[in-house]
Specification:
Layout lengths: L7 E18 L5 E19 L4 E6 L13 H13 L5 E6 L10 H16 L6 H11 L3 H6 L3 E5 L3 E4 L7 E7 L6 H8 L14 H5 L7 H7 L2 H10 L4 E6 L6 E5 L2 H14 L4 E7 L7 E2 L3
Parallel strand pairs: 3-4
Antiparallel strand pairs: 1-2, 1-11, 2-4, 2-5, 5-6, 7-9, 7-10, 8-9
Helix pairs in contact: 1-2, 1-3, 5-7
């Protein structure tokens, strides 16, 4: 059934950590990070229409892996916004879940950020960007950067965002997930206090900026899910790849390529060899998030 004419829609793009240095741990247990974050042009899609009560339905290839109860981040975001702005939490929300769950590409955080923007528009909520960002941080460390939806250097626990000037151009890419959910807490636990200094920031495109750095969570994640190493091998041996690395706490890995033709060819080759893996050719970078529109 198509959404009603009064519905709004929001795009929730995949978040990619092009590097991720864990620089320390605070007394409250949160880890300090230094990460270059960009967004892909693929992701989940959220639709919302006026309603007397708050509800959420889910469809899409990964709908079955998602809880739709009260702890769902989309519902948490909507309720938090309503409480902050003093408006009734009424909306019929529908999420098209296209991204793998617990995959290191910020699917839940991007969905929460999309819900904040969509419901703020739907309810005509009186809230500024700074207050919306503070509300996002209350929902999770990755939600503020997903709310921004552009290439930034992210530090602190995720609350400090520094846009790159000038922003690097989007890059052809391939995302690969072996079909394994990786618990973020377990990956950070396996890091065992091995911290890194902040990363160096170079000029150039995304591959040039990210290449000299690393993802500190890659090794502990492989220890928990060894198949991540096979994904990285498939990407690093693909023709035309410029950089391959794990994103976030895994298990999704990305490869940056010199051209869209090379990315498309790599995606086809890897899919033929590993039909059970989730594989998507896309573009990473540019201004992706924050799109709110009608149901068209």
């Amino acid at each position: 059934m198509p959404p009603p004419a009064s519905a709004l829609r929001a795009f929730a793009p995949a978040k990619i950590n092009l590097w991720l240095h864990v620089t320390g741990r605070r007394t409250d247990g949160y880890h300090e990070l230094d990460s270059l974050v960009a967004f892909a042009d693929i992701g989940d899609r959220l639709t919302g229409a006026p309603a007397e009560a708050l509800s959420l339905t889910v469809s899409g290839p990964f709908a079955g892996a998602l809880e739709t109860g009260g702890d769902n981040l989309v519902l948490c975001a909507a309720r938090a916004l309503a409480a902050r702005c003093g408006v009734p939490a009424g909306a019929a929300l529908h999420l098209e879940k296209n991204l793998p769950v617990a995959a290191g590409i910020g699917g839940g955080s991007a969905d929460a950020a999309a819900a904040l923007r969509l419901c703020a528009r739907l309810w005509q909520a009186d809230i500024g960007e700074d207050e919306l960002a503070r509300l996002a941080l209350d929902l999770g460390a990755d939600v503020p950067v997903c709310l921004a939806g552009r290439t930034v250097r992210m530090t602190g626990i995720g609350e400090t965002l520094m846009p790159l000037a000038p922003p690097p151009p989007p890059a052809p890419a391939v995302l690969v997930n072996p079909g394994a959910a990786v618990p973020t807490g377990a990956v950070f636990g396996a890091l065992a206090g091995r911290f890194s200094p902040p990363a160096g920031l170079r000029d150039g495109d995304l591959a040039a900026r990210a290449g000299p750095n690393r993802n500190d969570l890659e090794r502990p994640a492989i220890g928990l899910v060894p198949e991540i190493a096979n994904v990285l091998t498939a990407l690093r041996t693909a023709s035309g790849v410029r950089l391959a690395r794990m994103s976030g706490s895994g298990a999704t890995c990305f490869g940056l390529f010199g051209s869209e033709a090379e990315a498309d060819a790599a995606a086809r080759t890897i899919a033929a060899a590993h039909p059970a893996w989730w594989i998507a050719a896309c573009r990473i970078g540019g201004r992706i998030g924050g799109r709110i529109g009608g149901p068209g």
